[in-house]
Specification:
6-stranded mixed beta sheet, alpha+beta
């Protein structure tokens, strides 16, 4: 029975989509550098497979870079040494993958199928497509949805059949201009987006008068992405290794920042005009994250907060319609604020986003109406009784989780928002 996938419903394999994912791959510095290192190893330094040393170092590198967790890599190398790999690679022998994959270790039979396909692929990248569990699920999905080719699931685990399935995939969708390696990059990335079960953890926290101590406090939360209104310019801070940052602002002491872990594989894309301050858009495997802090600085100084937000959302939706999006931050908007009108207010922003398929995660969780919140996200002048609801998380991503954090008076006048997508 066909089961729709929330991410894949928006995807149809095409020349433009494959090109988009190839470009996306080329922007992933760690993957690109790993591929270059493996190319140097497989295609230059250790080309042949006649010695245990050559095979072992290549197997060890693959095991590390791909995190395949093969526990007896020396046994695998010894097994490979007993097979005439070079001649069979030269002839493009697809059955080589099966023979490499079947191995006995300590009397127990193993089938290291994906690893064997990777080993062959790195010798002959345009002959041997890589088998991967994400690609397996993806091909099944497009078979069931589009009927691109008839095959049984077990055929995906038999390499000559797998090769034919990939060939029919290219033919059906008109992708024959792409190399096997290029299709590998497309299928793996899309499959990972659709079937990776891990949830990305995000916190949005206006930290009020940014200091290094407050940044350190944030990073101790061990989230994947940090959206930080009122963050100082990273040049004034010490951001530890393992993180990427993006920042915009007119005052080095107070702008909008976003910090994300390297393994998030995030890419900054520019979707909102620079004359609407401040917004940062980060493209990730889980969707587009829009860090929002509408602020009367610079080019948007004469606009109201709701107008800045509405104009930015209209521009965003026009450019990124139909995609998975999380919009989160300190919107500086609340019901009844000065400067709102029938066109620009948090109510009109909320109505616009809901009509486009978005929902407020706080209001979804609490079932409270906009303007009737029992909780607050901001304490004006740090006063317990002076409460406002300024921080929001809107998304069209299914199964998103939300939690409104406690007030940390020693850190900020705002509450943190915690989201998982």
């Amino acid at each position: 029975m066909f089961k729709e996938n929330e991410i894949l419903r928006h995807h149809y394999p095409s020349i433009s989509e494959v090109n988009e994912y190839i470009q996306k791959w080329n922007e992933l510095e760690d993957y690109v550098n790993q591929e270059k290192a493996l190319d140097k190893l497989f295609l230059a330094l250790c080309k042949d497979n006649k010695s245990i040393e050559n095979i072992l170092i290549k197997c060890s590198a693959l095991n590390d870079f791909y995190s395949t967790n093969i526990f007896k890599i020396h046994n695998v190398a010894q097994h490979y040494l007993g097979i005439d790999i070079d001649e069979r690679l030269k002839n493009g022998d697809l059955t080589l993958v099966r023979d490499l994959a079947n191995i006995v270790i300590n009397g127990k039979q193993f089938y290291f199928y994906s690893f064997a396909s990777k080993y062959c692929s790195h010798h002959k990248p345009d002959v041997y497509p890589i088998y991967d569990s994400y690609v397996h699920k993806l091909l099944k999905y497009f078979r069931d949805r589009d009927g691109f080719f008839k095959f049984k699931e077990k055929d995906l685990k038999e390499y000559t059949s797998y090769y034919e399935i990939i060939s029919q995939f290219l033919k059906h969708y008109g992708l024959e201009q792409f190399s096997v390696k290029e299709i590998d990059k497309y299928l793996w990335q899309l499959g990972k987006e659709a079937f990776n079960k891990y949830k990305m953890k995000i916190v949005s926290y206006n930290i009020n008068k940014c200091t290094q101590q407050k940044i350190d406090h944030l990073l101790e939360m061990n989230e994947d992405v940090y959206i930080i209104p009122e963050m100082a310019n990273p040049k004034l801070l010490n951001i530890p290794e393992g993180y990427c940052t993006e920042w915009i602002g007119d005052d080095d002491k107070k702008g909008l920042g976003i910090i994300w872990k390297n393994n998030v594989n995030g890419t900054i894309v520019h979707l909102i005009s620079s004359n609407l301050n401040y917004f940062i858009t980060l493209k990730t495997d889980k969707g587009l994250i829009v860090a929002a802090w509408p602020t009367k600085y610079g080019a948007s100084e004469k606009l109201s907060y709701p107008k800045i937000m509405m104009l930015a959302m209209e521009e965003l939706i026009q450019k990124y319609k139909g995609k998975r999006i999380l919009i989160v931050g300190d919107l500086n908007c609340y019901v009844g604020q000065s400067g709102e009108n029938k066109t620009y207010s948090i109510k009109t922003i909320d109505k616009f986003l809901r009509e486009k398929g978005f929902r407020s995660l706080y209001h979804e969780k609490t079932q409270e109406s906009l303007g009737e919140e029992t909780a607050c996200t901001y304490h004006h002048l740090f006063k317990e009784e002076s409460k406002f609801f300024l921080d929001y998380a809107y998304t069209n991503i299914g199964n998103a989780e939300f939690h409104l954090g406690d007030w940390e008076r020693n850190i900020s006048d705002h509450h943190p928002l915690y989201i998982e997508i």
